[in-house]
Design goal:
alpha+beta; 7-stranded mixed β-sheet
């Protein structure tokens, strides 16, 4: 009997072991570490890659553009204007002042120092004149129109005292060109009508650092010139999202644009957005765009860092050796997210409680570069059901730097 009891005990121990091990293996992770490459969507030009090619490889701006925008060539266009939707203005009155006191407002024949424009109802605006951002205000009258234009009656040049100062709660922002109160999106918005070349003086230093032009003994200026052409081409190619009342906007939805500069409500110093180094790049490439073989201006997307390969799409995917520039902290990156963070993010995206996160698996990739390339599809397993998303969706849901990642 002793041997039989011994065998029984061994069998029970083995059974207990079989029960315990699977439970341990299936315990949900406390966190997940993501190893990634690049920052942004990866389509078109890598800004860090452009700098790397300029400084480390000695490439010209044109060669950089040829590399990233395959199938296009550099051509010139006729000078144009842009209508920039100032996205923070939605639903707000337009209040403008000018240090020179030479503002002109639609429907009013005299110069004013400041003006205030409010939408009363569909197709109706009310206009006041004043002495500064805070008034006092004197009624000018009502206008029946779809927009009211505020302009300078004297040439602006590069003199900020002649530029239009858009009054906000935190101070004023200086703009070249005109400011318009426009009836759109069911309310009133402000639009800055400005020459494309003047708009680019603000966009380029917002998209890349002006000091790049000084790097590599000045070789970095080629990357800044490439950025100027890409930004111009992107703007001139057209944007139909806003209808006829705007051609672009001032946020990252379009291209980041900050006007000439800003001044705080209590200060007297203008903090300039424009920089002589980026202005030089804009002037050196004046009216240059990238055109496709059929003559269309190419919509030249760009992003911070490709990670070593661009993503393809409108332009062929290419190996990006320039992106491995010493100053580029996003060429390769790592981030750890707790399980609770992943669960909350996916719950918000799916609109329901998915339960406990278990793992990521069933990866599909584009096969370009390290880690197997960008994620095209991946499954997240939860106790309440599985969720399969594209890599770009996962990037958005979890706030990752790019869709090129793997989990440790």
């Amino acid at each position: 009997m002793a041997p039989r009891r011994l065998l029984t005990r061994l069998a029970l121990a083995a059974a207990a072991t079989l029960v315990v091990l699977p439970l341990t293996a299936c315990e949900p992770p406390a966190s997940v570490t993501f190893q990634g490459r690049g920052w942004g969507h990866g389509r078109g030009m890598s800004q860090w890659g452009a700098l790397g090619y300029a400084v480390d490889h000695g490439w010209s701006g044109t060669r950089i553009l040829d590399h990233y925008y395959g199938g296009t060539t550099t051509r010139t266009v006729t000078a144009t204007d842009q209508r920039v939707y100032l996205t923070a203005s939605r639903g707000r009155e337009l209040v403008v002042t000018q240090s020179a006191g030479r503002l002109r407002v639609d429907g009013y024949g005299a110069d004013v120092r400041a003006t205030r424009v409010a939408r009363l109802s569909a197709g109706r605006f009310r206009v006041w004149r004043g002495t500064g951002c805070n008034g006092p205000w004197t009624l000018v009258g009502d206008r029946s129109a779809g927009e009211v234009v505020v302009r300078s009656s004297i040439a602006q040049g590069d003199d900020p005292t002649r530029m239009l100062q858009h009054c906000t709660g935190s101070g004023t922002r200086y703009y070249r060109g005109e400011l318009r109160a426009v009836e759109a999106l069911g309310t009133v918005v402000t639009v800055n009508k400005v020459a494309t070349e003047l708009m680019l003086r603000s966009i380029v230093p917002k998209e890349v650092s002006p000091y790049w032009a000084d790097l590599g003994g000045g070789r970095g200026a080629a990357a800044v010139r490439a950025q100027a052409v890409a930004a111009r081409s992107y703007a001139v190619s057209g944007d139909t999202r806003w209808g006829s009342w705007a051609t672009t906007c001032d946020s990252s939805q379009c291209q980041v644009y900050g006007g000439y500069g800003t001044r705080t409500a209590s200060g007297s110093t203008i903090t300039k957005v424009e920089d002589p180094r980026t202005t030089t790049a804009v002037a050196a490439t004046a009216n240059q765009v990238r055109r496709r073989a059929d003559g269309r201006v190419a919509r030249t997307e760009f992003g911070s860092s490709s990670g070593g390969w661009t993503a393809g799409g409108d332009f062929p995917a290419v190996r990006d050796e320039g992106d491995d520039y010493a100053g580029n902290a996003n060429h390769a990156w790592s981030v750890t997210l707790g399980r609770a963070t992943i669960e909350a993010a996916y719950d918000r995206h799916q609109g329901r409680d998915l339960g406990t996160f278990q793992s990521f698996d069933s990866y599909a990739r584009n096969g370009l570069g390290e880690l197997g390339g960008r994620v095209t599809r991946v499954r997240a397993r939860f106790s309440g059901g599985d969720v399969t998303l594209t890599g770009e969706q996962v990037r958005s849901v979890l706030g990752l730097k790019s869709n090129w990642f793997a989990t440790a």
